[in-house]
Amino acid sequence: MRGGKRSPQRAPIHEIFWSMLGSFLGILSIYVIGHIQGLQLESTLFLVGSFGASAVLLYAIPTSPFAQPRNLVLGHAVSAIAGVSCALLLSDYIAIAAAAAVATAIMLMHLVRSLHPPGGATALIAVIGGSDIHQLGYAYVVTPVVSGAILLLVVAVLVNNMSPHRRYPQYWY
After folding, report:
1. What is the pLDDT of residues 35-59, one digit of tens each?
2. By residue range, what is the domain housing residue 64?
3. Which of 1, 50, 103, 146 could join 121 via S-S bond, C-beta 3.0 to 4.6 A?
4. Model-level pTM greater than 0.85?
């Protein structure tokens, strides 16, 4: 249980800057679009919590396989489907529904080659997100999940390619 390596060095200041700028603009874009559409963000949870974790991947480590467009969008989509399905099928057993949602999301992401770790949270939110999320049913997959992931992706393409030290994405599909 003893680690044999040292902690990695801090990222260069220019990387920290681009990570901060991208995450700020990505999350802000979801919030702004939610208001333009007339959504009450607090009640619909348009700003899904798992998007914060996606922002870390997209803007802090954009070369990670987990941060690539296919993984981001498809990973969130299949996870949302898994979460909504488990919430509907197992509504009387919240603990089992929550566990099944995350496990099913991981299985589906593996099957479609689109692992995106925040997808586990996306599936879990579909189960434990409360009545506002439950009322969305499968619409949760489209708005907020896929639409939010696409907004994060657009910002990631723009911001990450503004830096002379970054190239994003590494691959699309």
Report:
1. 776 555 554 455 678 999 999 999 9
2. 13-160
3. 50
4. yes
